[in-house]
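To close the chapter, one final illustration. This time we ask the reader to focus less on the individual chains and more on the assembly as a whole: which components sit near each other, and how the overall shape emerges from the parts.
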Amino acid sequence: MPETTTDPRFVVVANRLPVNRVTDADGGTSWQTAPGGLVTALEPLMREKGGAWIGWIGAPDEVVKPFRHDGYQIVPVELSEAEVEDYYEGFSNGTLWPLYHDAVAFPEYHREWWDAYKQVNKRFAEAAAASAGHGATVWVQDYQLQLVPAMLRELRPDLKIGFFLHIPFPPIELFEQIPWRRQIIEGLLGADLVGFQTPAGAQNFLRLVRKRTDNRVERYRVFVKDSHVCAARAYPISIDVQGFHDLAQSPEVKAESEALLEELGHPKNILLGVDRLDYTKGLRQRIRAVGELFASGQLDPDETVFLQVATPSREDVEQYRVLRDDIDLLVGRINSQVGGVGRPAISYRHAGFPRATMAAMYRIASVMLVTPLRDGMNLVAKEYIACHPGRAGALVLSEFAGAARELKRAYIVNPYDLDGLKETIIEALTDPYAERSKRWRAMQRQVWNHTIDDWANNFLRDLEGEPEPEPEPEPAEPEA
Ligand code: GDG
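The assembled structure is written out below.
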């Protein structure tokens, strides 16, 4: 492999590339950066260090040559249609996604899905091995690529390998269902640093390593036999706080929020939900709770509108199609029973919107409802806090979102408890200004002091920092 000074020193490996293909006016195509916190945080580092981003372009059976984009290298990995079905829709989103989210939907185990997962992980690992310069840092992202760290270490022991899991790491009682659990644990242990959204995720992983491997574990470090030390710690992800704040303050977004208010009929209160249409997000429970509040008269549809955005997601996966129909039905039923003739009580949009429109919605929401059944972090909660202009916004937040660990002054709820959810929504709407603004200030402080740049810098500092000295040997663990 040629090693020149231009070989990337910093390589990101993620299922998707950070670019979207756009068709120009003359029919030609070009690449545009896909907006998102991760890209915003990592792009400057990529430019500074000379970087490469390895990922799938999002369309099956397409071969795209590596190219330069915005000062770094884009390295597309190809997936066949069958691989998209088995590795992506299958093992990633039909097995791991539901299992890691407390099995809120039934995880399926199929050997052909697993075979495809291994095969695709190997392709990503090989692409990373071929791209990275000597001694480079490689940062692997998320549950689709858990085997990459070990595969990559095998190919390139000179690299510093980090891994970050964006979704929860489940309790071992759930993880142990996976027929191929040993391979996944070993895959992750190939990294020098494995990052989780919460300390609980890191603890679940370390407990599993203790139980299922014979590697020595000391506090947050695993002494992988005859190899290296793998640290497992929490790095709660965040957002580009300043970027969201500035966007929400822009004249365009202010105008858009006015237009939106007009469209909704200038209600006194707006309850807002913004989610990918996913069964982990607690949409059924949330819509039922608000529906019951309208039906009982505790919420007056002449005063209050519930605006719910459900962004289309994974529509080729069966459980997502079922969810979409369920939600359509539920919203339709509620709207036919409550509300005036003109405007529905629930304004439901099954569509994706530009970021500016999202910011406009955050601006006008009196209460933001973030009530997932389980969520790694939940960035929408933080975006609302960065964008809402008043001094007394209110956030109703599930205790099962990673964000609840940081946003302790939110109105915390158990989303399975419909009565509790209803009470908390009313409390958030009716609490005195002084109470709401006290909570709001505390949450703002938290969000402004922990940005996406802090997240990336903390992770990379720990990954690239000097290794700590080997500790004294520990006495053997007693049998469980
Ligand atoms: C995973 C983990 C973790 C949504 N609809 C539109 C749109 N969005 C943007 C939001 C937000 C992002 O998508 C969603 O992020 P979340 O954190 O809420 O949830 P997941 O997609 O499930 O993300 C999660 C996250 O990874 C990061 O580690 O927090 O726990 O599940 O940024 O604004 N953006 C635009 N139009 C939409 O219609 N432009």
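The mean pLDDT is 93. The longest helix spans residues 111-131. With these observations in hand, you are ready for the problems at the end of the chapter.
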